[in-house]
Amino acid sequence: MSFKSSKVPLFSAVCAALLTLGAMPTSTMFPKPEMFSHWKAPHHASKAKNPIPINAKSISAGESVFTQNCVACHGANGKGDGPTGAFLSPHPANLTTAKFWKQTDGAIFWKITHGKSPMPSFQDSLSRKQRWEVIDYLRHAFGPKKGQ
To answer: Of 8, 45, 87, 92, which is most buried with the most CB atoms under 10 A?
Structure first.
C-alpha cells in the first residue's frame, strides 16, 4: 500500500464531515439569542415579597451595588449594552422593557440569586439585603413610572 492510498480514508472522512456540516442549517450551529431568552423563575420564587422598603436609603445602596456589579454587562442605563455585555451570548437583559417589568420582585431576586449563564449567581457575593436593595434601585431607575 502506498503512502497516498493510506490517506484516502482520512480524506474521505474529512470531506464527509465538512459536507455534513455544510448541509446543517445555521440555526443548529449558531443558535439565535432568542433561544436563550426565556428565563422564568419558579412560581414559589415569584411570590416572594421585597422586605426592604423602597426609599432614598435603599435606592442609594442599590445603586452602589448595581454600579459595582451590574453596569459592565447591563450598562449604566440598564439597556443591556454595557461594555462587557456586547461579548456575551445571550446578551444581558434590557432592564427598561415592559417585558422585564412584568416580573415580580421575587422573580428578579431569584434570578439575581441563582444566575443563568452568562449571568453569574450573586448568592455568595451579595447579601440578601443587597440583592433586594438593587431591585429597589432597578425599580426606581428603570421601572415603569406611575401612569404607564
So the answer is: 92
Per-residue pLDDT band at 38 (split at 50, 70, 90): confident
CB 37 within 8 A of CB 94: no
Encode pLDDT of 1-35 as tens digits. Answer: 555 555 556 555 555 555 555 555 544 444 444 43
Sign of CA dihedral 122, 130, 141, 97: positive
User: What is the amino acid identity at position 48?
Assistant: A
pTM, two decimal places: 0.73
| HSE-CB of 136 using CA atoms within 13 angstroms | 23
Provide the domain count of the chain. 1
Q: What's the rounded Cα separation, in Å, for the pair 81 and 73?
A: 7
C-alpha cell at 28: 443548529
**Residue 41 belongs to what domain range?**
32-142
Q: Is 94 inside a domain boundary? A: yes
How many Å apart are CA 68 and CA 135, to the nearest integer? Answer: 14
